[in-house]
Structure formats: C-alpha cells, structure tokens
From TrEMBL:
Keyword set, alphabetical order: Signal
Stated name of the protein: Lipoprotein
The species this protein was found in: Brucella intermedia M86
Domain of life: Bacteria
Signal peptide region: 1-31
Record flagged with keyword Signal: yes
Amino acid sequence: MKISRAGVRLPFILSATVFLTGCLAPVTIDADITTDGYDYTLRVESTLADPRAAMAAAEGRLSAQDDENARLMAANDADLPGFERFEYLGDGRFAVVVNLSGTLEAAGQGAGFPNTRRGTGTDNYLRIERAEDGTIEISSPEIPARNLAQLEALPFRPSGEVRVTPAPTDRVVEHNADRTPAIPDRAYVWTLGSWEDRISIRIAPQDDSAER
C-alpha cells in the first residue's frame, strides 16, 4: 500500500549525545538498507552539519577554536558502531561513512543513523525498528510545521537518495517511496530535496505471521 509522506511527528534536530555540538542534520545522504527476515544492513555516506555552526560559518562568525573543537569531537567519536569515517570538513560540516549490520531479535530492537549507539532513538535521521506486530519499520522524521521556517533559513537543504531493498521473500505492507522496484532492481527509492521529505516503509518478514 502506498502511503503519503506525512506520518508520526518526531523531533527534527538530531541531538545525539555523542555529538558535543548538540545537533546534526543531513546536508547530503546516500543510503542503502537491505532486509532479509530480521537481518538488516545499513550503508550510509553522508555530509552532516551542525545547523548553528553552519549558520555562523555562513555569516563569518565561526572561530578557529570552534573548528578545532569540532575536529576533536570527530576524532573522539570515530569509534561509534559501524563508523568507517567521521571527519570534520570545516564550516560546521562532517563527512560520515557508516556500514552497519545486525539482527532485530525482539520487538523494540532497532538501529539508526547517525547515532548508531542509540538505535531507534528519536535523535536519529534514519531508523530501523522491529514493531510489536512483527513488521519492520524503516523511517525518517517528519518535520513539524512550526519548525519549517527555522529550517528554511539554514544555508543548506538535505539532498540525496535512500534505497531500501527487502528480500524477495519479504512482503512490503505499505510505503511512500518515490520509485518502486523494477526488475532486476528490487529497491524502493526515495529522492530527497526538502526538509519535508520523509521516508516510511513497513515490511513483513518471511517468518512473520502477524500480517499474513
């Protein structure tokens, strides 16, 4: 079933505790997620930005000490689960590469990006979670209307592509993808270009009987 891009509202700013600046948001993102039963893989290449630092850089207010603190933060947090790269680029932006895999063994378990330690925490832009009904939910946050004006003032917007590829034996219950699978590609694809773009897909694994 195709669903709209609207959905459950979640906090937008990614306030992962490991990020000492307090919040990070996607500038660019290229993500591949695969599921096979309750096994998943998550591969992401992204540029993230601290919105406050990015605004300061655009206005010429970002100090050399701010830059140095950000470099130290990236070095300290480069050992997050699945992180292959976490590097400060300057101007409040970070390059991140994540390659994570695992198994959702029970309801409520999950994984997420960029805070790979927090799993399904609302501070993550991408979340993979096993729901109580046995389905797998993959989603990104919807932006509350009251926050949109603030976001539109930032010197960047998110852009990129997210691809979700379920195993051939798994069943997609609902989704809001921009593009659906075409043989031989089995991916559901979202093209991002706005703060309002949201990812949502629900998958019933082969060994799940709740939705069958």
